[in-house]
Design brief:
387 residues, Cytochrome p450, 5-stranded mixed sheet, 3-stranded antiparallel sheet, 14 helices, 12 strands, metal-binding
């Protein structure tokens, strides 16, 4: 093992492939130092077992205000203090209190009750895309509108505002520091309107059950809504497009999915592992931790390279043998709250897409697919398709 600390790059030449640097990072062992854009040298965890162990260790924190908390990409301006009110930037007991407020809306039973609505949304979007004719942009015409509609239905957010929050989400991923503030202001105003004119949705439930009782204040509720709004549409949209692209690029695997719709839940699980579009998870140690033969000192930053760790299980896409216990949704107390909803959306989207458009194919070569490539989220900005 070399003592040279490499500059971390999570660039992916292939939009659905692992980071180009993955092999080099693996060779350094499951836990090793890397250098970030700001010169800091946190630990990077690439081993699958080590990643699961770290993410479930109570001696690591998600507090983004902690000195030395590692950020894989630049964040213009000061880090938003609003994030202290969210699930993603809190530790127990605050995290536990916030999670209990919203988890009933994301249970298996609640998601099962939403499936007819998801089916109707998917059908409507495919009807519109087919009516417009070939070619089409799968991202703009299908992959983005579906989860945007679903999360708006769940939260009680007016879908007519979707272009605004989708644009702010894109700007956030492009390191625009103002985007988060714009989204929080939007949700703050929306909560204010809902206080005076209640409707149906998770935000309305939180107003009635938490805000009016004093368990949440107005800003905390707006910030929680912002995080759920972003997480509820952007990641799923990119999974639909990249999952479609990966299957279209592996005809043997696509044939299995088209031959038997019962294989689609397993295919979704395998695509989640194989793609792992959220490439890294950030933590900071609150005590000394022995991991992978290294000692992570209290106060040192740690990045979990989920996209690399998941490929340790296999570099091949195999929908017949989905490898579970992956890290696509994280692990431990911060494991993604919306994973049941995401799985349902992906299963329904892929089922209808490949059933109704059996001749679906990319309309441009792979290297011409415009993509977003950063350490926060891998994805495409458009996916031209024809049939």
């Amino acid at each position: 093992m070399t003592d040279t600390i490499p500059d971390l790059s999570l660039h992916r030449s292939c939009p659905y492939g692992p980071p180009d640097q993955a092999a080099e990072l693996r060779e350094r062992g499951p836990v090793a130092r890397v250098r970030l854009f700001d010169g800091s040298t946190p630990w990077l965890v690439t081993g699958h077992a080590e990643a699961r162990a770290l993410l479930s260790d109570p001696r690591v924190s998600s507090d983004r205000s902690a000195p030395g908390f590692p950020m894989p990409v630049p964040t213009p301006g000061p880090r938003p203090s609003n994030l202290s009110a969210t699930l993603i930037a809190n530790d127990p007991p605050v995290h536990s209190r916030l999670r209990r407020m919203v988890i009933p809306s994301f249970t298996v039973r609640k998601v099962a009750a939403l499936k007819p609505k998801i089916e109707a949304i998917v059908t409507e979007r495919l009807d519109a895309m087919l009516a417009a004719g070939s070619p089409a942009d799968l991202m703009a015409d299908f992959a983005l509108p579906v989860p945007s509609r679903v999360i708006c239905e769940l939260l009680g957010v007016p879908y007519e505002d979707h272009e605004f929050f989708e644009e702010q989400s894109r700007r956030r991923l492009d390191a625009d520091g103002q985007a988060i503030q714009n989204l929080i202001k939007y949700l703050h105003d929306l909560v204010g309107r809902k206080i005076d004119n209640p409707g149906d949705g998770l935000l309305d439930d939180l107003i009635a059950e938490q805000l009016r009782e004093g368990a949440l204040d107005h800003t905390e509720l707006a910030t929680m809504g912002m995080v759920m709004l972003i997480a509820g549409h952007d990641t799923t949209a990119n999974m639909i497009t990249l999952g479609t692209l990966a299957l279209l690029s592996t005809p043997d695997q696509l044939a299995k999915v088209r031959a038997d719709e019962a294989a689609i839940p397993g295919a979704v699980e395998e695509l989640l592992r194989y793609l792992t579009i959220a490439g890294t998870l950030s933590r900071i140690a609150t005590d000394d931790i022995e991991l992978g033969g290294r000692t992570i000192k209290a106060g040192e930053g740690v990045l979990v390279a989920s996209a690399v760790a998941n490929r340790e299980q296999s570099d091949d896409l195999d929908v017949d043998h989905p490898l579970r216990q992956h890290l696509a949704f994280g692990f431990g107390i911060h494991q993604c709250l919306g994973q049941n909803l995401a799985r349902a959306e992906l299963e329904i989207a892929f089922t209808q897409l490949f059933r109704r458009i059996p001749t679906l194919r990319p309309a441009v070569p792979l290297d011409e697919v415009p993509r977003r490539d950063n350490a926060l989220l891998s994805g495409v900005t458009a996916l031209p398709v024809s049939w």
